[in-house]
């Protein structure tokens, strides 16, 4: 059974930093790209970044230069290092795996950026 468990969310001040983690199990982690997706209050899902199997990554323009996605295949974990946080980064952040026709999600972790 595929499981994705996010952690590391919380409250940060504008300009601050947070690190999110997603612990994965139930599949061959190193064989799949992993993605972070967020949902701000009252808005739809927004793709944030994806890290590919070889470690390269793509970023949404809204976070490029501020967020860094990485993976540790030995720990079956994907990370999202967020710096220069803005109030508009406030959202629930989800870890996402697409494996063929299947789409898996974690339970999400809340990130709130506020004074």
Offer a concise description of the structure.
This protein has strands spanning 3-7, 10-12, 18-25, 34-39, 45-51, 57-59, 67-72, 77-82, 91-99, 102-105, 109-113. The protein is mostly beta strands and 115 residues long.
Keyphrases for this structure?
115 residues; mainly beta; 7-stranded mixed β-sheet; globular
What structural class is derived from the secondary structure elements?
mainly beta
**Strand portion:** over 45%
- Strands, count: 11
Largest sheet: 7 strands, mixed
Q: Helical stretch count?
A: 0
Report the helical percentage.
under 10%
Q: What integer is the average pLDDT?
A: 97
Radius of gyration over all CA atoms, rounded: 13 Å
Shape: globular
Task: Note the run of SSEs as H and E.
Answer: EEEEEEEEEEE
Q: Gap between N and C termini, in Å?
A: 40 Å
Low-confidence stretches: none
């Amino acid at each position: 059974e595929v499981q994705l468990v996010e952690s590391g969310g919380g409250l940060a001040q504008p300009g601050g930093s947070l690190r999110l983690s997603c612990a994965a199990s139930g599949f061959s982690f190193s064989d799949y790209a992993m993605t972070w997706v967020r949902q701000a209050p009252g808005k739809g899902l927004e793709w944030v970044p994806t890290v590919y199997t070889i470690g390269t990554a793509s970023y949404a323009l809204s976070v490029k230069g501020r967020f860094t996605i990485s993976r540790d295949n030995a720990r079956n974990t994907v990370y999202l290092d967020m710096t220069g946080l803005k109030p508009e980064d406030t959202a629930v952040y989800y870890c996402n795996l697409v494996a063929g026709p299947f789409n898996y999600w974690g339970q999400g972790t809340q990130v709130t950026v506020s004074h």
